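Sequence in, structure out. First:
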Amino acid sequence: MGSMVIASSLAIAQRDGWTGEQLIRAIVGGYEMGAVLGYSIRGGGQFNTHFRSTALIGSFAAAGALCAGNIPEDEDTVMRILCFAINMACGINAWAHTGGREIYIHNGSASAAAITSYDLGRTGIFVSDAVLEGKDGYFEALGVDSNGPGRFKSWIETSSLGRGIAETHFKPASCCNFTQASTAIALKMHKDFRAKIANVEDIVEIHITTTPGALAYPGCDNAGPLVSASSGKLSIQFGIGAALAFGRFDDDTSSRIDDPLVNGLMRKMSVTTDVEFEKSYARGLQPAKIEIFFKDGTEIVEEVSDVPWLDGPAVTERFMLEISRWLSAEMAQKLVQRCRQLETATDAGRVLLVF
């Protein structure tokens, strides 16, 4: 969600001269609006999965961010902005089957749509105020269960402000949400057993147990051949293979879809789920288990009960690693420091320009 909320908020901060406090308020508000809409459409277990959730909530979340950053004069203006944003929601999941790059365009389009909605809503153009819950509205179009509007209302009325961003998890690896746990296990295995797993020929089988959600999501259970880096970021098998082979999973390793060592490991993999994992998934957890069987009769087994989400210092550490391809360590550290001082900035858009 951050790629849409922060992108649109920063763009308007630069365009309209927002303060740091406004930008922070926008980010918190955007996460809140994205969380309430995501919970409303997915919380009942009935939803048209041909659409990509991130793209469906992105324009609404980002438009909500812009309203929070610069609160309009009246509720009708807020309503128009958010309703226009709902009208612009889209994003089809076909990319996951083909490795298409439109996944990134989904997020960019949502950010742009939010800015368009923000500007249109302020003009006073009439828009349906029942676009969410009304006949042929958003909830009906997505096949959401009848309590979708109720979940939306309940969140607004009962949740404390900031719940959306406070409950946000931060991924340990640059891959799909559903492959985080298994990739994290493989990274640990590389660190602890690198010498033993170095020779693919010594491995008989790699068995993975994951959640039913991971197996069902388009592109996740994909043993190859892969066609793009997007496929690599989705594939459970590739995430594990790359982590075992390289000891890291980032934008560099996710593009090595033709690596012979990784592909050799992938060919030895099988993926299943079980009843206990299904129960954990129903409680909001994402457990995973990897078992590696060797020709000498030995085996390595590692399991996690949920994704090892990153804490604050670990987020900064991963940021420094990921951005090192574009910024020097000195410039990256300067950007981190400016983010930490953002609340007191008088021109947030300018203070974050470090180039």
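Second:
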Amino acid sequence: MFDRRKFNLAVCAALASAARPAGAQALYPSRPVTLYVGFAAGSATDVVARAVAEPLSRQLGQPFVVQNLTGAASTIATATVARAAPDGYALSVVSGALAIGPAIYHDLKYDVDRDLSPVGLIGSLPTVLLVRDGLPVRSLADFIAYARSHAGQLNYGSSGIGGSTHLATELLSDAIGVRMAHIPYRGNGPAGAALLAGEIDVLIDTVLLAAQSTKTGLVRALAVTGASRSTVLPAVPTFAEAGLPGFDASIFFGLLGPAGLPGGIVTHLNAELARALQNADVHRQLVDTGGLALTPGSPEQMRGVVRAELAKWQAISRKAGIQAE
């Protein structure tokens, strides 16, 4: 016997199913999402990840849980995401290290362009050229002239071989045509301490750490990367203002997942990420305190940034002969 009520229910169910995006994306996320971070708790990437995880959790109704998976300049965390199922539950907040890894490691188990899906840009952290107070230079122009007239006599510190500060300083050396001796340390902290102690002449560091160092009076900031001056160091000119346009060693941050991430999930996450970056608490934590320039962007824009960074760091690592130990 024909049951009109059951028939109507079946039709409604079929229509609802047809209206739902493929892969039940309309229900995403239906469980907690893991945000992998390739650096330790308290690092810049970790701070960015935790800052966006909180509003994303509220907006999407599921926890976005930060998991620190450290080692090998963040390539372990990236490889984990590259191998994950493309369902949106394994994502990663990445930094400029994403583009440095392939430049210094030649045995990576993933290809950045092939095995990962960009979701969106978050922002950019400026870096600053610092010199010890005893160096007789007051501007970037002074520094370039002094370095050229004292060829082979200056040295610089870094957070370690193949680290972002190492490659950034080699990029600067290449731009001004001067070679400086490299002294690697085990992290930004020891390198910064060495500059304060006058053990090294030059250090390129993040704007937040640079702001702390300059307050001692033992370190001088000459120029900051980025299109505009930093909110944390407003008195320091950009490299373009100081006479070296085109030089940029800023550190980008973004969100990505494994290759094959459904377009509906990517679009949804990108929109929610942009919304999270408008949050007042996020702005206060990342911009006012951390010195980050928020630059939300599309997946395509993020892919373009990553490709440009890959090309830049691969070129400089080859030229300077840099490879991971």
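Remark: The domain at 127-242 is CATH 3.40.190.10 (D-Maltodextrin-Binding Protein; domain 2).
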